Please model this.
Amino acid sequence: MDRDGIRERAERGDTLAQFTLGSQYLFGRFTTEDHAEAARWYRAAAEQGDVRAQFKLGYMYDHGLGVAPDHAEAARWFRAAAEQGDAIAQDQLGVMYEEGRGVPRDHAEAARWYWAAAEQGVVEAQQRLSKLCG
Model:
């Protein structure tokens, strides 16, 4: 996507433009790195159901990038992406349940999410599932 007009498209609600603008701010591509702006644009796309933005926003809350660290909010966004089938979000949600980070500790729920990710070939989820159930 070209830089020209991306902000205008993002402001009109184009989720691809919002996600792209968020990524540009996150990594400082074509603009100054600004995690708060990245989170703002990811949120705009995430609230419209963009699975990639939901995962990125979850990651930002989990690591306190551009937002105050909030594990419950991270779990909320990881869940939104996981329910849409994002394998990495499923794995991360499993980790959160296993550790009780932002959600109640629940090994059965962790195993459920690890299983979903493992079936999609996420090696880390396969390893975590094996360790959890082994």
Observations:
- The mean pLDDT is 95.
- The chain has two domains: 1-71, 85-134.
